[in-house]
Design brief:
By secondary structure, the protein is mainly alpha-helical. Among the domains are: 134-213, 2-Layer Sandwich (Potassium Channel Kv1.1, Chain A); 222-385. It is 52% helix and 6% strand. It is built from 15 helices and 5 strands. It has helices at residues 18-24, 101-110, 115-147, 167-173, 175-180, 199-211, 215-218, 227-240, 244-270, 279-295, 304-321, 325-330, 334-358, 368-375, 378-381; strands at 83-87, 90-94, 154-157, 162-165, 191-194. The strands form 2 sheets. Strands 4-3-5 form a 3-stranded mixed sheet. It has a two-stranded antiparallel sheet with strand order 1-2. β3 and β4 (162-165) form a beta hairpin. The radius of gyration is 52 Å and the shape is flat. Residues 1-35 and 67-111 have low confidence and may be disordered. Residues 1-135 are annotated as: Disordered. It comes from Bionectria ochroleuca (Gliocladium roseum). InterPro entries: BTB/POZ_dom, SKP1/BTB/POZ_sf. Residues 17-40 have a biased composition (Low complexity).
Length: 385
Amino acid sequence: MKGSSKDSRSWKPMGLPQSSFVSSVPSPSPAPAASIKPEPGSNSLRPASPPKVNPWQTASKAPKPKPVPLDLFSEDPPLPGTSWKVDGGQEECKSPPPLSIASTHSASSAQPETSASRTHRSDSTSSNGSQTALQAAVPRVTENLWVHPFGADVRVVTSTMSFMVHRDIVTAQSGWFRDNLPPANEDGSMVDITLTCAPETAAYCLRFMYTQRIEICDESEPSDPAHLSRCALVYCAAVYLRVKGMVAHILRVIENTANDLARMITSRVLDHEGQSIWWFDFGPNHLYGALDIMYGQSSQELMKPFRLAMGGIFDATLFWLLARPQFVHQLASQEWMVWMPRILADQIEYRQLRERSYSWTGSVIPDDAALDTLLANDTLSRIVA
């Protein structure tokens, strides 16, 4: 240290502790912080500006967050009836009252579906949709097989026609084919079988097994009498071949015709137009053809359902036909004299059957069990179609 350059600010008396020196020297008056300019090389302490915020205290204590209920972390949401309330940054959970067994069951069933259940439901829905689409496509495919008999393994031969059909289709719908069709050939060739019935009726029966339609009966209006004799003809073929679906279809056509005729005649008579009903002029000729086929069969027991259906036709028209001189003139023929007692008996039985069945179905068509009994007749097993 040099004696000529003593600095009063950095000089300290020898032999005295520094703390005593600081306490004995008065502090200079405080000045604004901006006006204090420390000199270069100065090691003295200077007062700091007062703190704006107390470093030992926080401005405000934030509320401690309440623990989140465990239900929020689970996959399942709260049970129905639990209400969640958020107010002022606080969450409040109100527990539901105790649930009964019934309410618990309904609550559990009301919970959202899991991914597994959704997948199962989507699979079942798509499966049901596929089954519905396939069932809807089956009739179209079967109809195409009738037009283009791809994979046919049976040839049905008649006097003037032959038809290539499929064993699975004809045996599923015809009892006669089930009993009389020869077994399949080992080499895969077609099996031939012969029908002695009229080729046209055989064609309509085979076509119905593929299309479920009878064009000569279905395409005409219900009140058209022209299809009555056609229905009688194909009914005989359907019974002999034991095609239950076709028998029921024909009976339904005849019943619809009777109902349509009853409505038409009633409305025309109420409008005083009974004399202008065209059916009375052309109907008797077609009735003659249907009655000739119906009563000409050897087994009247097998024709009983068709006779009762025709009883509905006469129940709707016979009273008005008797007022026509042309029809009265036809009754003088030998055929009508034989048929009239049978017609009246069938008409009475039709009315009785209609009254008994009206409260249930309003139909006189036999059910499946009755048709099975009819087609199981021993007479049919001895018939060679």
